[in-house]
């Protein structure tokens, strides 16, 4: 076989760009979720590529491109057989193998976003492996490996269905089985917004993905050594960019009309939706068709996100199901309407009839069916063995800590001790009573003042509770149940008798003396202090070190700033 330097370089450049999409997905997912899970998310996006690469080398490539049957390739560990019948002209085997490997990793990483913030890391590794090992290669064989869909004329140029919809369907099934994040839905069933922590990082992820999509779609021509391939690549680039831009504009205007203001995060999603939608037919439609596909995806992604969130009650933190699953299917079907007949049959709007559209629909439905059945079995097996979902307490405190022993992914922005820096020695402070002399104390100035008050006068008491962040929601509910109408909650750092818990960073022990805690301040007069204290103890008690402390203090007076009410009246609800 004679190799073409132009074709080989083009394919390798495309492989490098598609690999860098992993960074884009990681940034998007991290930015659209909460800071306490950032390390977990970055780890997942790294590991799905590292898990998928050897598995695709061992079995996936052979299953996808082997000359077996119309349903399944062949088992070929280490890619040892001859693939000359399927290789693009002038492209060596290993160049094509790495190009297909990075596509496989993209399909697996899509699932991470929809199942973010509540999935066990071990479970993620298992189902990511299953996608790369079997689910993606089998449907990929049908579409790109000479399987039955390819023989029928199904067209998915760069993977709206083969890559994105497969990932979107897995994400949908996984998010449904997992259930929503803690606090996502109220008792009335209405969704609550859980804001991402870093929109700048999410925007960076979108721009990285948009840039890399030129390799994802453009390099799928797998050649640049002829006039026809050069022309096709130019059209693919133009259509890819146009569809994304139109989708973004459509969503901005649509959300502006619908919500009264243009929605930032939804508009970012729209750029990806347009890219996903045009991926199937970027070589088969003209710019007018690409613009219409982008317009449809820009509107569809908003309606889809709302439907999953509000109607179906499926919690998708980053919109992966809508962007990749729904818009991937839509783009594949729209190709059946707008194909001009240059590289495929003509679409419905160009005089081709409904045959090509029917083939596209069959490919979408059959791929959904295969993916849904297989990933459901995988999730069921994981759930019954190692467990799929993280514990509620771990979810609330963040998967960075519970899954990886990572205190924070943003150490420079949190109150943590600096490793390797010795703090100055503590100096004695004049006036402090030594501990032995303080032990026998029987009263406080506040107690004396309270005794001087007239009989029946209101008593105001401040109850300060220091507890784990994971216990806050239960504490709030318990306080509301006994009639507490207000509280102040502060995130604090501290330690008690345990003096912290050792963790490890790169195998080196990190002595953590300041742990994240929550401080809840309540001033009570009507509710008995003993009831508040006993209720709090009942909620917070686990029997383990770190349950917290409760401090009870006298309060001289209370003043409501707006009305000037004092004392008892200032503490009561105005209702």
Please explain how this structure is put together.
The protein is built from 19 helices and 6 strands. It is of the alpha+beta class and 575 residues long. It has 2 domains: 397 residues, Ammonium transporter fold (Orthogonal Bundle), CATH 1.10.3430; 123 residues, Alpha-Beta Plaits. The strands form 2 sheets. A 4-stranded antiparallel sheet has the order 2-5-1-6. Strands 3-4 form a two-stranded antiparallel sheet. Strand 3 and strand 4 form a beta hairpin. Helix 4 packs antiparallel against helix 12, helix 6 runs antiparallel to helix 11 and helix 7 runs parallel beside helix 9. The radius of gyration is 30 Å and the shape is elongated. About 6% of the residues have low confidence.
Keywords:
7% strand; four-stranded antiparallel sheet; 2 domains; alpha+beta; Alpha-Beta Plaits; Ammonium transporter fold; 575 residues; 19 helices
Structure described in brief:
Helix content is 55%, strand content 7%. The chain is an alpha+beta fold and 575 residues long. β3 (501-505) and β4 form a beta hairpin.
Q: For the largest beta sheet, what order do the strands appear in spatially?
A: 2-5-1-6
Can you identify the CATH class of the largest domain? Answer: Mainly Alpha
> Which residues sit in consecutive blocks of at least 5 with pLDDT less than 50?
415-451
Strand content: 5-15%
Shape-level CATH architecture of the largest domain? Orthogonal Bundle
Judging from the principal axes of the Cα atoms, what is the shape? elongated
Number of helices: 19
CA-CA gap between termini? 84 Å
Helix proportion range? 55-70%
Class from helix and strand fractions? alpha+beta
Largest sheet: 4 strands, antiparallel
Element-level helix/strand string: HHHHHHHHHHHHHHHHEHEEEEHEH
Rg from C-alpha positions?
30 Å
What is the number of beta strands?
Answer: 6
Overall pLDDT, averaged? 90
CATH topology heading of the largest domain: Ammonium transporter fold
- CATH superfamily membership of the largest domain: Ammonium transporter AmtB like domains
Number of domains: 2
